[in-house]
Amino acid sequence: MGRDIRAVLFDLDGTLLDTLSDIASAMNAALAAHGLPTHPVDAYRLMVGSGADVLVRRALASGGEDARPHPADDLVGSLLDRMKQEYAANTVSRTRPYPGIPKLIGELAELGLPLAVLSNKPDELVKPIVAAFFADDTFSVIRGLRDGFPRKPDPAGACAIASELGVKPRECVYLGDSDVDMQTARNAGMIAIGAGWGFRGRAELVRAGAARVIDDPGELTPLIRGGFHAEGADSGRTD
Asked: pLDDT tens-digit profile of 132-149?
């Protein structure tokens, strides 16, 4: 038995946009300013996705800095401030939409589906980044990490978006590239679709319970047009 899909939610980093180089550049600049080891761009694939403060802690741990004499919270706070400054100054220098994303957005718009973005990136950064690549009326709701809502994989943000769109969570597809995204979708009772082109890869998405992993954005529209049929599509909450 398939579901009628009435809305599509997207993760941002690694799903709609390839932001990795700009994130890595900002984090490396912050680390270098503190005399700490920097990392190759690809190393950041496993560090992003859970918010900027977690990114900082993962970058420190990857550099073997867990035993430094600095007070951990002070160091993390200082690095986080510097990273945000660097990133705000160069948010879209090398960031680009993934191939096939603009076409997918157009196809979903033709179907009359409201679209939304839900990211763990700070809310004040999400909206200008989205605006740099998509028309103002592309997404009905755009949300980053903000006060009053816990970060993904808590389902509160996703469920709030569904309510704002006037649909039930079970009528929504959530497309993302990480285990956090799949857990968010499942916790909310949404259909968890893995973006195999993103930062983390197919294996992580399957382990996290994706109802389906797609390797090209063009694979999503036929699934929605046909009504979604996949093992695991009805797992999670149903309210």
From this structure: 999 999 999 999 999 888
Helix, coil or strand: residue 210: coil
- Maximum Cα–Cα distance for the chain, whole Å? 58
Q: How far is it, in rounded angstroms, from Cα 136 to Cα 171? A: 24
Reported pTM: 0.89
- Active-site residue identified among 4, 11, 215, 234: 11
CB 144 within 8 A of CB 162: no
Is the bond leading into 153 cis (omega within 30 degrees of zero)? yes
| Residue 181 annotated among the catalytic residues of the structure | no
Q: Please give the helix or strand (H or E) that residue 237 lies within, else none.
A: none
3-class DSSP assignment, residue 181: helix
To which residue do tokens 């006060």 refer? 147
Rounded CA-CA distance 12/9 in Å is 10
Residue 8 β-bridge partners: 115, 173
Q: Please answer whether residues 238 and 172 qualify as being in contact, where contact means their C-beta atoms are separated by less than 8 angstroms.
A: no
- Which residues are paired to 7 by β-bridges? 172
Instruction: Tell me how far apart the alpha carbons of residues 175 and 105 are, in angstroms, rounded to a whole number.
Output: 12
Q: How many CB atoms lie within 10 A of CB 231?
A: 8
pLDDT digit string (tens) for 194-234?
999 999 999 999 999 999 999 999 999 999 998 765 444 44
